Amino acid sequence: MLSAKSLFQEILDDDESFRLFCSIAAGGEAQGGWENGRIAALVPESERALAPKVARHGADEDKHGRIFNALMKKRGLEPVPVPDEADYTMLLERQGIGLAHERLKRDEPLTVQDIVTYLAHSRVTEQRASEQMELLRKHFARHPDIGRAVRMISNDEDNHLAYCHEELLRFAYAGHGRTIQRTLRACALAEIAVYRDVSLAVMDRMGRILGWPKPKAAVLAAGIHAVYAYERLGGWRRMVSLKMPERRDALGGPATTSVEFA
Predict the structure, then answer these.
(1) Beta carbons of 205 and 20 less than 8 angstroms apart
(2) 211: phi > 0 → left, psi -120 to 50 → alpha, else beta; which?
(3) Under a CB-based contact definition with an 8 Å cutoff, are residues 6 and 59 in contact?
(4) What is the pLDDT along the chain (262 residues), one digit of tens a residue?
């Protein structure tokens, strides 16, 4: 019987599929680390108090990338290039979601609108990350090889999501509410389509590595399309709601940057 646990266990047990999974995850986290680092450096003067939190967000993402690389190293594996069709962050940028890399490469201060755009984009993508890591934590929190990494990353992603809620609510109270809701909706609708496409691409690659029979591959593809249909019909709304989180000031302290998994 197919289940999320059995599917990931199959990926985990094979070196090549595990290497692809970790390479894709490490690449996305490293990209997020760079983006947050640039945003922290370019925060407008009126929002300088936000810069340390953005910087911590970036430091966490960098740490996650190192964790996935360390997990590969522990098994004697080297990263592989991330296929273009599986590059989640690049595909989102191509959809005009978030702040363009060309903008972040310029040494020009961002505007308050840019910060709102960044936070809205992060609120949507961190929802996805938090849910994915919660699923892994549910099934693999005590796994001897990846359990500690799963618990650490999951806790960080929950912090990131809480931070986005709190900061967006602060901007909403300051008069940016309509812009926030409009931006969140556009981000969410774009994200669910990109997530579907990336999921199909990754499952296709995994299927070829693991030699899945056509019926199994077809069932998995149908499941991905079913998730997209649910999200398109209304599931996306969970990504745009805002509420004050229980974890207040979740990124207010220093980042934990040490990684020892090898």
Answers:
(1) yes
(2) left
(3) no
(4) 678 899 999 999 999 999 999 999 999 999 999 999 999 999 999 999 999 999 999 999 999 999 999 999 999 999 999 999 999 999 999 998 999 999 999 999 999 999 999 999 999 999 999 999 999 999 999 999 899 999 999 999 999 999 999 999 999 999 999 999 999 999 999 999 999 999 999 999 999 999 999 999 999 999 999 999 999 999 999 999 999 999 999 998 766 655 565 4
Long-range CB contacts for residues 65-68, cutoff 8 Å, separation at least 24? 65/25, 65/26, 65/27, 65/29, 65/30, 65/33, 66/26, 66/259, 67/149, 67/152, 67/153, 67/259, 67/261, 68/22, 68/23, 68/25, 68/26, 68/29, 68/149
Q: Are 183 and 117 in contact (CB under 8 A)?
A: yes
What's the CA gap between 251 and 20, in Å, rounded? Answer: 30
Residue linked to tokens 């640039």: 38
Q: How far apart are CA 69 and CA 79, in angstroms?
A: 7
C-alpha 184/C-alpha 180 separation (Å) is 6
* The model's pTM: 0.94
The closest alpha carbon to 13, from 217, 199, 195, 206, belongs to: 206
- Determine contact, residues 63/256, Cβ cutoff 8 Å: yes
The region that residue 243 occupies, defined by phi over 0 for left and psi between -120 and 50 for alpha, beta otherwise, is beta
Q: Residues 64, 156: contact at Cβ < 8 Å? A: yes
